[in-house]
Amino acid sequence: MADFAPLPVPRLALVGAPNCGKTALFNALTGSRQKVGNYAGVTVERKTGTARTPGGHSFDVTDLPGTYSLRARSPDEQVTRDIVLGHRPGETAPDLLLAVVDATNLRMGLRLARELRQTGRPVLVILNMIDIARHRGIEIDTAELSRELGLPVVTATAVRKVGMAELWSRLDEIAAAGLPAPAENAWREPGVLELRTAQREVDRIIARTVRTPAIPHGTTARIDAVLLHPVAGLAILLVLLFVMFQAVFTWAQPLMDLISAGFDGLGAATHQLLPPGLFQSFIENGLIAGVGSVLVFLPQILILFLFILLLEDLGYMARAAFLMDRIMGGAGLHGRAFIPLLSSFACAIPGIMAARVIDSRRDRLTTILVAPLMTCSARIPVYTLIISAFIPARTVAGLFSLQGLVMFGLYAAGIVSALAVSFVAKLLFWRRDPAPPFMMELPDYKLPRLKGVAIGLLTRARMFLRRAGTTIFSMMVVIWVLATFPGAPAGAEGPAIFYSFAAMIGHLIEPLLAPIGFNWQIAVALVPGMAAREVAVAALGTVYAIQGGGDTAQAIGHALAQHWSLATALSFLVWYIFAPQCASTLAVIRREAGGARWMWLTFGYMLALAYAASFLTYHIALALGAG
Ligand SMILES: Nc1nc2c(ncn2[C@@H]2O[C@H](COP(=O)(O)OP(=O)(O)OP(=O)(O)O)[C@@H](O)[C@H]2O)c(=O)[nH]1
Ligand SMILES: [Mg+2]
């Protein structure tokens, strides 16, 4: 019954279990660069693109979050189910379902493929990661499998061009022949008994069509025996994190010096080229001091992400989640919270969105509540600036850089407080609910693909530069104006900035912040810091530059070391661990938690924590003579 599809461009949807390579296939089909990662739950939203076959046909392709069954439990799984069944308002079901199955893990994938067939939509089964399956000596009789399933089956290796040939030619055939008309949906939510029957049927099909080698592939198991060991595994995880932060400080230095020198030269050149006056001050103090002082931190951010991307690709991150589950569970956090919290090290916003993979609402809310406590990369400029200005560059025990140790401590403080807050949240809100058990599949180890890592780094760099060029730049213009006008009255003493709007605003807020050791310059920097945390660094740069310092990151450091006490610097660092210094994060919390209540709760508790912790730090430091 070769009915022709009425739509000019047929719509395909990629459906499959988490981590089976849907996004990799999506990228291969559409030429996009969506994020792939070797752990479950990377994709939490639908993404669409267009595939053009070698035969010149076009398809609309949708990438979906992974799901083990249409019996959806978490919000990301519901997205998939609703799209597959055409339950989205104003949207019909896709014309062809591409059932993506991990060829090394057929049990999960085939059960879902059979569920998809029940929906009545045409289904094409793709056995992805066939390269790994062959490498392990797994033999799959695809013709027989296709007969058993009653569905066409192709094999694919999404991450290699040559691995896509069969799928491309099959799509061309489908386009030429026209899609079969869909049948009635016969799928309904299966009960436990039906699920069990379905799994038995799948096991029977696998027994008939798949030959696995007698000796199972042991590498992953052998590595896991060490890396998942309750003691050795945790120790290795700690060492890895520690090395990561040491590297952020030591490897980045030469590159940062280079960028710094570049901005130095630029500043000097503009100073010479431009006639003295407002314009010169704007370029030198506003632009170069502001944006330049933030750009210097690009190398550190990239080094941090190099580590994270490599470990992700390797398949280590899911293990880290497994290791942390006991500790996180004790604090009332779900094991699946690990990935969202890990993403929050980049930025709380994707982290909070990644919490969609957590199916229970209380666990999702707890995760969202504490995600902003993870040290996001926007804090790195703030931390590094203060650390380089106040913490001597010494080595401790002949091995560790003291600055790296302090940085490690700041990250650790964020993590520990996140655990503490979720523990308290559990006591306050959810005392009676028992925590559901943690189930997460551990992916096999894979060698990281350099191309993927390089793309990941490029994306990060581009995002960072875009922020520097937009948010940070525009905030800098505002700050420069506030710090320059109305100018000093005739016969005034001291730098003109003392008579500026910025000083007025700063002096207005200062009494509130004086108890935690902040001066009016810090008060000025905190307000625009709500737009993006790094702006605080740039704002301090501009304020002190106009006040008469130099205009590079190093010059800002010197200015701070002159004007601040150590107690103030420490209090400022501690403030940045806790303070709700990011308006966009709060907006996302409101959206994802479904209410302003949770946003204000987050804002309130973080502000209270920040103030209390900075107050304590400042006064303890003063008492110890760091005033
Ligand atoms: N060797 C090999 N690796 C693959 C193949 N397809 C995907 N991968 C890798 O498998 C991992 C998971 O791929 P993704 O595309 O992120 O998987 P996904 O199905 O989108 O996962 P979720 O979005 O979490 O549901 C990544 O590390 C990919 O590089 C393949 O055909 N062969
Ligand atoms: Mg994906």
UniProtKB/TrEMBL annotation:
Signal peptide: none annotated. The chain crosses the membrane at residues 226-249, 286-311, 331-355, 367-393, 405-430, 464-485, 497-516, 523-546, 566-588, 600-621. It comes from the Bacteria. Gene3D superfamilies: P-loop containing nucleotide triphosphate hydrolases (3.40.50.300). Keywords: Membrane, Transmembrane, Transmembrane helix. It holds the Pfam family FeoB_C. CDD domains: FeoB. InterPro entries: Fe2_transport_prot_B_C (IPR011640), FeoB_GTPase (IPR050860), G_FEOB_dom (IPR030389), Gate_dom (IPR011642), GTP-bd (IPR006073), P-loop_NTPase (IPR027417). Residues 9-177 form the FeoB-type G domain. This is Ferrous iron transport protein B. It comes from Acidimangrovimonas pyrenivorans. The lineage of its organism: Bacteria, Pseudomonadati, Pseudomonadota, Alphaproteobacteria, Rhodobacterales.
